[in-house]
Design a protein that fits this description.
Layout (H helix, E strand, L loop, with lengths): L1 E5 L2 E5 L16 H6 L2 E5 L6 H12 L6 E5 L11
Parallel strand pairs: 3-4
Antiparallel strand pairs: 1-2
C-alpha cells in the first residue's frame, strides 16, 4: 500500500500482489490461534479467494475468551468512494 498526496487529497493505492493475498491457515498456525488472547483480521486480507476461504476457519480456532477485532477498510476501490 502506498499513500500519496495529490492536489491536497490523500490517495491510497493498494499494490497487488501483497502478502495478505496469500494468507493460509496451516496446521502450524492452529496451536497459535488456540493460545491467542486477541486476533485482529481485516477486510483487505479477504480480497483474494485463497485468504477469504481461510478467514472463518482461522477465527474458529480461537477460544471463546479471545478478543476478535475486524478491521474494516472502506476505501476505494474496495468500497464506493464518498
Amino acid at each position: 500500500m502506498t499513500v500519496e498526496f495529490e492536489a491536497g487529497s490523500r490517495v491510497i493505492r493498494f499494490i497487488k500482489p501483497a502478502a495478505w493475498d496469500f494468507m493460509e491457515l496451516t496446521d502450524d498456525w492452529v496451536p497459535t490461534g488456540r493460545a491467542a488472547s486477541a486476533l485482529c483480521f481485516g477486510s483487505l486480507a479477504q480480497r483474494s479467494e485463497e485468504s477469504r476461504q481461510d478467514h472463518p476457519d482461522a477465527v474458529a480456532q480461537t477460544s471463546a475468551s479471545c478478543v476478535r477485532v475486524f478491521d474494516v477498510n472502506l476505501r476505494a476501490p474496495f468500497s464506493p468512494a464518498k
